[in-house]
Amino acid sequence: MPKLRGEAFWRETLRSAHYVVAPMVDQSELAWRLLSRRHGAQLCYTPMLHAQVFLRDANYRRENLYGEACPEDRPLIVQFCANDPEVFVQAALLAQDYCDAIDLNLGCPQMIAKRGHYGAFLQEEWDLLQRMILLANEKLSVPITCKIRVFPDIDKTVKYAQMLEKAGCQLLTVHGRTKEQKGPLAGVASWEHIQAVRKAVNIPVFANGNIQCLSDVEECIRKTGVHGVMSAEGNLHNPALFEGRNPLVWEMAEEYLEIVRKYPCPLSYVRAHLFKLWHHTLQVHQHLREELAKVKTLEGIVDVNRELKLRCQEEIANQKEGEKPKEGLPFFHWICQPYIRPGPKERCRENGDSGTEKGVRGKRALEEEEDGNSELLSKNKQKKKLRNPNKSFDPSLKPKYAKCDQCGNPKGNKCVFNMCRGCCKKRAFKETADCPGHGLLFKTKYEKSLSWQHSQRRIQTPEISQRGDAEVGETAVQKEAGDS
């Protein structure tokens, strides 16, 4: 049976999905996908998987995809990051029997993606992307899809999308932010870019960005004309987003923890989910935030969740009539609701003034920290300050280090080659030399090895001569016995 393409693929295989849970590193695992599906999600993506690791590591495949079969976890799209056509296709071939499509990640803007040369950092390499998608479209039995970020220029974004469609992409998810828009600089996603792409291509398009509640989903579909809407952070803070509900946080947390018992995942995933769900409450009960960060078992996380629930129930019982949510929240902190990420200025103000008022130090801007003010130092630096009160973190007072002759990194103070340890090691090995400053003793060890070999030969030589003399004596005795 030929694989379905374009609109037919979206309509029949993906069941005309409108509500989509995004691929999230270490956050869209099976347990979270099942929770989201119970509360309105119609299509889910796996976390981003590394094609190279997936190809070579059987444990990685088992932990991320080959686990216990779960029929209700469909339709499902597996997302890979990759920068090599052969590696991408070979990994996809190992995954295609466990999903309904393979997605190529062209949207990750993080520094790890820059170092690994994947995600949004491939968006200028159109020839490479064409080869990857063409080969995947030819070899795979399931459709190939892509998730992209936009360029600042709408026309270039449209041409980019058309190139991917021509290469064989059967569904396109467009995150309406550029790769520079991330963290505090995220800003608002451009639905104008998404609308332009939707009009320019003939394949289904999903929109991503600015989705905090169900009304945002409906407005996005109306304004852009897309087939579906994908949510990441909105879903993490409220897994019932696609139901249009704002449930009590502990209801979602308890349901999720029950699913985790049946479909286990790393504890770090579970902890991260509870930090998102309880985000607003943990600003109030800071000591429980620290407890959640420390616990080492699932039962420990369950206990912290139970304690948070009890604290909230006490607040509800003591609530005065007509009392309104604090901190400008639309709902009380124990209700699932969006988290609006503050911009750089708001973040500094929020963590500087309001943080110190509560007696809790929040995150600071780097420039605030560098003046050496202990109230603005990180916790780690405050500990160092306690151990050494005279310690200064003023960058202008830091000693100026001499640079390595080879690479420019700080050189070892006692290095005989005036190099950093890495360059020194390479040179000392190549020249069979010593560098006491870095503890590298290639020459000494080589000489010791030669000395040991020489002593072994001297020990063996007398043994051979003694054995030879004995043999000669024995021969003489035998001869004499023969003569007699």
Brief summary:
50% of the residues lie in helices and 9% in strands.
> Tell me, what is the CATH class of the largest domain?
Alpha Beta
Strand line-up of the largest beta sheet: 1-2-4-5-6-7-8-9
Largest sheet: 8 strands, parallel, barrel
Q: Any idea how many domains?
A: 3
Rg calculated over all Cα atoms:
32 Å
- In one word, what is the shape? globular
Which stretches are low in confidence, meaning pLDDT under 50 for 5 or more residues running?
Answer: 350-372
> Strand pairing plus helix content: what structural class?
alpha/beta
CATH topology category name of the largest domain: TIM Barrel
Number of E strands: 11
**How much of the residues is beta strand, in percent?**
5-15%
- In CATH, the architecture of the largest domain is Alpha-Beta Barrel
What does the average pLDDT come to? 87
Q: Could you give the distance between the termini?
A: 100 Å
CATH superfamily of the largest domain: Aldolase class I
**Residues in helix, %:** 40-55%
Total number of helices: 21
